[in-house]
Design brief:
10 helices; 7-stranded mixed beta sheet; Rossmann fold; about 270 residues; alpha/beta
């Protein structure tokens, strides 16, 4: 995930992104609060599809955090899981001399490959676009066209993408592009939240709870997902010139439950 939004934007858009960044940077809702919320007992279980699935991620790690356990479950069942990563995540440590953007991009590509191997996802079904980190919205039409192309070429009966309300600009643009592509290709869309668990609170009016569905994980799948998350060393540990951690333990707690969640759209809503 990228750490900060772009700043050289028209003033209203820059202000919106700054408010979103402030919400993400602020102290978040603890996992204990979510665990104690009775409202989550109302989330029904999503029905897993048969056949190929296309998973879209804005940055290397989004797909693992939001859908890694379920992707591993599908692959283990013999289903093709195709993964499209839009950026290389080179913006997660701005100004770093230890890992400047070109080197960070290379390292994060390697981390992702390692993580997807851990999940058991076929390396032949991985694709990247190399869009500039924090700039997915500027390539939204291109992303939509690429997603639509892959849905058709792979025969995917489901597209899975970041939630378009996640408050991270890249996640939201990825979600919007996937929605456009899924509608054009006439396939259902599932969207997984990443940062929502941080900035939202139980019952938050900004969240469409009625469309949220649960994807249960076995202990084995969860352990596999945790091992995959540990592959993202640049995100879960500090750099010498960046003591802050992009994904600290309290953020990871939201993505290490015995279930994952998606918002359903299209034919599955």
């Amino acid at each position: 995930m990228a750490e900060r939004p772009a700043t050289d934007l028209p003033r209203p858009l820059a202000a919106d992104r700054q408010r979103a960044a402030d919400a993400i940077d602020a102290a978040g809702t603890a996992e204990e609060v979510w665990a104690a919320w009775a409202g989550r007992e109302r989330w029904s279980e999503a029905v897993l599809p048969n056949g190929p699935v296309l998973v879209v991620a804005a940055h290397p790690d989004d797909e693992v955090l939001g859908f890694g356990g379920t992707a591993s479950r599908l692959a283990a069942a013999g289903q093709q899981v195709h993964v499209l990563t839009l950026t290389d995540g080179e913006g997660s440590h701005p100004g770093s001399r230890v890992l400047p953007p070109p080197e960070l991009a290379r390292v994060r590509q390697g981390e992702l490959a390692e993580a997807l191997d851990v999940l058991g996802l076929d390396s032949a079904f991985r694709y990247r676009m190399g869009i500039a980190d924090t700039r997915v919205d500027e390539a939204e039409d291109l992303v939509a066209a690429r997603v639509q192309q892959l849905v058709r070429e792979t025969g995917a009966g489901l597209c899975v993408a970041p939630w378009s309300g996640d408050l991270h600009a890249d996640h939201e643009a990825a979600g919007r592009a996937a929605r456009t592509a899924a509608a054009a290709a006439a396939v259902p869309l599932w969207q997984y939240p990443v940062w929502m668990w941080h900035w939202a609170t139980p019952g938050d009016a900004r969240v469409p709870w009625d469309r949220l569905r649960r994807l249960p994980l076995t202990t084995e799948l969860l352990n596999r997902k945790k091992a995959a998350v540990r592959c993202f060393r640049t995100q879960i540990a500090p750099l010498a010139d960046h003591p802050g951690v992009v994904l600290p333990p309290d953020e990871l707690d939201h993505h290490q439950r015995l279930f994952e969640t998606v918002f359903l759209e299209g034919d599955t809503a």
